[in-house]
Amino acid sequence: METMHGLYNARKKRVEDAVKLIEPDRIPLVPVFQAFPVYYANKWTIQDIMEDYTKATDVYDYLYDHFQPDLGWDPILFYPINYMERSGINWFRWPGNQINDPNTMYQFIEGEYMKGDEYGEAVFDITKFMMNKWIPRSFSKLSGLSKIDFRNTMWFGHMGAFAAFSDPEVISSLEALVESGKMLADWFGYLAEYQVHMKEKYGIPPIYAGFAYAPFDMIGDSMRGTVDIMMDMYDHEEELLRLIDVMTDFAIKDTIAGCSGKEVPYVWYWLHKGVDEFMSDEQFRKFYWPSLRRYLTEVAEAGLTPMVYVEGAYNTRLEYLKEVPPGKVIYNFEYTDMEAAKKALGGHSCIMGNVPAVMLTYGTPDEVKDYCKWLIDTCAPGGGYIMDTGTMVDDAKPENIEAMFETTLIYGKR
């Protein structure tokens, strides 16, 4: 009987072979589950787990007792409510906070947390801008950080800077920051413990070393908002490009420092605004791709493996995706034509996806089996394919998840 250690290493190698474009012993199976573990176990609600994250152990154990992928998620997608309440995060809604149903997934609320006339400030000193502007606007309990400035502390300038720490608003914000930090440290500790538990009980490696975003999306998602960054491509063209460069520089350094040496090398890039429908090819080529390409390339050259979660469709972008080191990047597609993706990227980069969420929710097991067989027949020859869901899975039918696993485990064998 194979040991958990042996299973663990076999699963890691299976995925690594796919990345290197080697045909593995079986098609790797790496689905992205979000709320599905909670709905499947039917023991706790999403609100229960976000209020007490240790309850996630029951939910994920139940999932892995029945489904064992080649890489698996810990409960990191269920953020702790105590931290969000203590920090006063403004751009999130969750069960118990503007969401009445305790079993509905949380929601991201986009907003304008950087004004259009503030590009110059952000480019000049991104750290000061984040501390004095972005954080106070994004977290209601941290507004006092707007009064702290260390830039002129040399010689006796420190007196003015230090005096700000007597301000009641600053003190309140620092107390909230310390308490929020302790809450996050405890949560991170729990996640690390669960990853060890996954390894020892199930022989399942973790699915990520860290997370990343396209530099354009870092600005568009959390600073300017979708509508405003669309206009910025016309109204603040050069300023936007300069800030993208700033974001790219520190993102590369932070990602390499934060992800190197982890149990697995996979850095999940979540792409949002580069889809076919959002911007023209000219805009993609100018604003989106150059910084993302540099980010992917430098992270890959540092020995990490970008796993690029391409939300939406990239049917017109496939040729660009080859402009990275071969055999070192995974492209995980949602709606992109997989036949076209294999034709464009086969022999160059591993592709992943894209069992449709709609099919998993409303289809039949036979439909899922047929689609998975088509994916294997289309994408697996020659190596470089990983089976995955098209998007993060919430309310799928369990029998359809079973069909996806069964087909991959049997039909996907070499």
Key traits:
9% strand, alpha/beta, Uroporphyrinogen_deCOase, Methanogen_methyltrans, UROD/MetE-like_sf, 414 residues, TIM Barrel, Uroporphyrinogen decarboxylase (URO-D) domain-containing protein, 2 domains, three-stranded mixed sheet
How is this structure best described in words?
- This protein has two domains: 240 residues, TIM Barrel, CATH 3.20.20.210; 124 residues, no CATH class.
- Helices cover 52% and strands 9% of the residues.
- The chain contains 17 helices and nine strands.
- The strands form two sheets. A six-stranded parallel β-sheet has the order 4-5-6-7-8-9. A three-stranded mixed β-sheet has the order 2-1-3, with no helix packed on it.
- β7, α14 and β8 form a beta-alpha-beta unit.
- It is globular and about 70 Å long.
- The model has no long low-confidence stretch (mean pLDDT 96).
- InterPro entries: Methanogen_methyltrans, UROD/MetE-like_sf, Uroporphyrinogen_deCOase.
- This is Uroporphyrinogen decarboxylase (URO-D) domain-containing protein.
- It comes from Christensenella tenuis.
